[in-house]
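The data layer described in this paper is built around a simple, fixed record for each protein. Such a record has a labelled line for the sequence and another for the backbone structure tokens. For reference, a complete record is included directly beneath this paragraph.
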Amino acid sequence: MNIEIVTCANATLKETGFGTMAACNDVMAVLISQGHTADVTPCASLHDLNAIVERGPDLLILAAKYLLLDDGLTVWYADYFNKNKLLFSGSSRQALRYDSEKILAKIQLARLGINTAQFFMAVPHQYQRHETLPLAYPLFLKPSDAANGNGVDDQSVVENFSQFEAKVASLYASFGQPILVEEYLSGKEFTVAIIKDRCGELTVSAVEIVPPLSQGGLRMLGEKVKASDTELIKTVDIEHIGAVKALAEAAFLGLGIKGFGRIDIKMNAAGQCYFMEANLVPGMNRHSSYFPRACQVANQLTYEEVIERMLDECFSRVIMADLQPSLPVARSTFSPRPFSDTSGSARAHHRN
């Protein structure tokens, strides 16, 4: 099978994705070892995307969600390749929005009756005194669409109005967007890698993440901890494994995720599980990313086996396309239609 791994050349992006070029190359090496023809294509312009459509590979593996063009426009890979009739891995643009816009995911799951932390949005000077805040302290503040723990540190947990104002101002200055304010959940933290195969069966790999104690005495899974790999990843204890997996599966299905994704969950002090966020283009660094590590710790899957399972559903769609000659699949004679839009702000991927 002829496969291209599509990533972006925007070094300043802070969104979720497979990670560095090394991660993409690791995935490529596995595909080649499995007998496929594979290559990594970093995209920097519409010309690069058009060239992919001209080549017409059997399958695209999307290692990022979108491409930020020099003129500020955003091209979502899922939309672009769907319009040009190419098969690609992962979720649709509609589902991918739940990854980039955390609030939409929380609203969607709350409508379905799935536990998610209470929240509100804030900008500097929006609230004049603590009595006007929609939720009681302690509160947890973070950017509404950043990944990899960006903007998260000890000051993210606030217990009074002056701390709240200071953190809102700091995050707004750094990220230029309304700040997500959640009720603070002080319990255990989990991440769950989920892979759906061609028959609809789910492989669920749940692990607990234990960050080191910070100088402030908190276990905060922020940017510095993720970058330094100082957090402990371990199996979930028997008391909580059922609730964690049930919530993760419900969130996966409720968000309409296709193929694979990672669900982050946290407990409150009473041990109740709450959905925190979804990552639909999970990091694939062989040794550091949570997705392959969760699969290894929880289900003893090797990196190669993880990739094989992630792409099982994709391969089945390629086979079906080959069995149906009438199905419109792009080949070198296909004329690509350039596509871009302005929805979504861009910041992008590293390790997640």
About this structure: Confidence is low (pLDDT under 50) at residues 327-351. DSSP finds eleven helices and 14 strands in the chain. The longest strand covers residues 202-210.
